Structures are given as structure tokens and as C-alpha cells.
Amino acid sequence: MLHIVNKSPFENTALASCLRVASKGGDNALLLIEDGVYAITKNSDAGKAVQAVMGGIKVYALMPDVEARGMQDRVLEGISMVDYAGFVDLVIEHNNVQSWL
Amino acid sequence: MSEAAGDFDDEDGSGTIKKFMFLNRKAPYGTVYALEGLEVVLITAAFDQDVSMVFMDDGVYQLVKGQNTKAIAMKNFSPTYRALDGYDIEKLYVERDSLEMRGLSEDDLLVPVEVLSSAEMQVLMSDQDVVIAF
Amino acid sequence: MAIEINGKTYDTDEEGYLTDLSQWDEDVAKVLAAEEKVEMTDNHWEVINFLREYYNEFQIAPAVRVLTKAIGKKLGPDKGNNKYLYELFPYGPAKQACKIGGLPKPTGCI
């Protein structure tokens, strides 16, 4: 399943809830978009939480949103960047998608 | 606060200078708060008040260097923070804890700021006549 | 609304400001100036170019007070004052020059 988070991890519990559930097993991927991309900043509290689940969950981020926020040089290693076409591919590849609004 | 007696430099009080703090706590593009707040600050600058800006929580993201919004088709308003100096808004403060939690440091910011501890922030806030939050 | 010059269309808002900054060129500047009854001289172009550079750098059109100060810094005090700028742009240097320069209305212009 593909999980999509679009809220900053510092002012919304969407990412925390998503990680809590998705890390319990199964075949899960996480796509961070909009303010959700702040979660993959190196040396940040949220970044540590993401890093902790990266063994079991493949993590993607939408590059246009990362660049808009100036965070492109501060991203954790092991995150896959996608563009809008890659976003569509991810949605097609997974049989279900959940947006954690 | 003892502001009632002082600060008047003419009879009708129109020359009163108050301390205005604009408290910015939102990331720049996910909501419209940051841009709207910045516009209000620029307009307020015309009224010759004692203006300071504080960046806390996700508000510190407004000042991150290297923003490029081309691919999301939104206006990149981060260069406008560099114009604040020309508007005589020179007091920009950032809370240290907010930076550190986000893996950021003063070097990641696009304008010169003063980094304050939470205790120093408390003192600064208490000293204001008006605090406006965005 | 729109202005048409030599077959090229320039879109404007209800107050006559260009809506797409990238459409701006000297042809449309001259037409906008004529509508404002401003006769363009080198001194006018100098202010227009200054404003466009300011906009490029900061992504806003400056308030008139800020413009005056910034021009004084760059072009000297004999140009960085209200009298000089209002002689060039009698209905307000920030407002009129921004319109002619194809920039949005200045922030802080009420």
C-alpha cells in the first residue's frame, strides 16, 4: 500500500500515525509531498523517525516540493526522489493508496 | 505594562510608537499564512512603528536558503525577506530550539537573524505592546 | 482587459497593470506611459529600470519611501528625493512607474 503524507511532521500527527501503523508489517511505501517533505531533513527529529522505519518502508519524496522549500541539500540518504510523473507511477504500481490528511 | 503614560510625542497621540511583534509559525507554501503575514509586515512598515519579526516552529522554514518554486508554479517569496532591511525592519529573531529540532542552523538562513533561547524569547515577547501571529 | 500593439496582446488588470510581468517590453511601456500622460525621458527610463531590477532581486515592488531611499543610495541624493521623483511621475512614483514598468502595484500602497 502507498501512504501519502502532505503535512509538516512538526505541526500535525499525520506522519507519526502513518509510521506507527505502516511499520507494523506488510508491503508499504511512503510518499511525502507538500509540507510533508520536511520530514526527511537530515539531523531533524522527524528525520530520525523516518530513518527508523526505512528498513521496512520504502520512502519517496516529491522533488518539486523539496526544491520549492529549499531542502534539496538537506535530505536523508536513501530517500527516492520522484517528479510528478513518478508520483503517478507510484499510484499505479500500488493496488491501494491512502492519503493521511 | 506601563506604556500608557509614555511614548506620546504629540497631543492627539497619532505619533505614538508601539512595539509590534509579528510571530511567524507556519511553513511557507503549504498554507497562505507566511505570505500574508509578510505582506502585512511590509504594509505596517509604512506607519513607523517599532516592528520585530519572530520565526518559531515551522516558521523558521520561511527563511531557508535555496528555495526554488518553479516546478510547483507558486511565487517564491523568500527573496522578499532580504528587502525587509530597506523597509527599516532590522529586528529578526529565530528561536534556537525550533532550528535544532528541524536539523537547521543559522547558516541555513537567507537573512541575518538573532538566534534566541526560549527564555530570551519569553523576555522579548513580554516586552511587546502588540503580538500578531501568523 | 488587454492592450494591443503591433498585433501583440498584453493582458492587464482592471487598474491597467500588466498581469504577466514577462510580457513587458519597451513598446508596451511607451503605451502605458502615454495612458498615464507621462512623456518618457532618459530619467524616466532610469527609474523604470531601477524598479525592475529591484523587483527581480526582491520579488516585490517597493513602497515609495523605500524606493526613494534606494534610489538615493544608488543614483545620489539629487535623484533620491520626493521632488525629483514626483516631477517625473506626478501621480506617484511607485504607482505610476510600477505600472509603466510592468510590475504589480506596490505592496503597502493603499
Describe the protein in words:
The complex is a heterotrimer of chains A (101), B (134) and C (110). Chain A has 101 residues and is α/β, with parallel strands linked by helices. Chain A is built from four helices and five strands; from the N terminus they run βαβαβαβαβ. In chain A, strands 4-3-2-1-5 form a five-stranded parallel β-sheet. In chain A, helix 3 links the parallel strand 3 (57-62) and strand 4 (80-82). The model of chain A has no long low-confidence stretch (mean pLDDT 96). In chain B, strand 3 (91-95), helix 2 (96-101) and strand 4 (114-116) form a beta-alpha-beta unit. Chain B contains three helices and five strands, in the order E-H-E-E-H-E-H-E. Chain B has a single domain (19-133), classed as 3-Layer(aba) Sandwich (Hypothetical Protein Ychn, Chain: A), CATH 3.40.1260. Chain B has a five-stranded parallel β-sheet with strand order 4-3-2-1-5. Helices cover 20% and strands 18% of the residues of chain B. The longest helix of chain B has 12 residues, at 33-44. Chain C has a single domain (2-100), classed as Arc Repressor Mutant, subunit A. Chain C has helices at residues 26-35, 42-58, 64-75, 82-88, 93-100; strands at residues 2-5, 8-11. In chain C, a hairpin with a 2-residue loop joins strand 1 and strand 2. Chain C: Its main location: cytoplasm. Chain C: This is Sulfurtransferase DsrC.
Short description:
The complex is a heterotrimer of chains A (101), B (134) and C (110). Chain A has helices at 14-22, 45-53, 63-68, 84-93, and strands at 2-5, 28-32, 57-62, 80-82, 97-100.
General shape of chain A: globular
Strand order of the largest sheet of chain A: 4-3-2-1-5
From the alpha-carbon coordinates, what is the Rg of chain A to the nearest angstrom? 12 Å
Number of helices of chain A: 4
Largest sheet of chain B: 5 strands, parallel
CATH architecture of chain A: 3-Layer(aba) Sandwich
- Write down the CATH topology of chain A: Hypothetical Protein Ychn, Chain: A
Shape of chain B: globular
What is the count of structural domains of chain A? 1
H/E series of chain B, N to C?
EHEEHEHE
- CATH class membership of chain A: Alpha Beta
Largest sheet of chain A: 5 strands, parallel
Report the largest inter-chain contact.
Answer: A-B, 27 and 25 residues
Distance between the termini of chain B: 24 Å
The helix/strand order of chain A is EHEHEHEHE
Amount of beta strand of chain B: 15-25%
**CATH hierarchy class name of chain B:** Alpha Beta
- Compute the separation of the termini of chain A in Å: 16 Å
Count of domains of chain B: 1
Compute the average pLDDT of chain A.
96
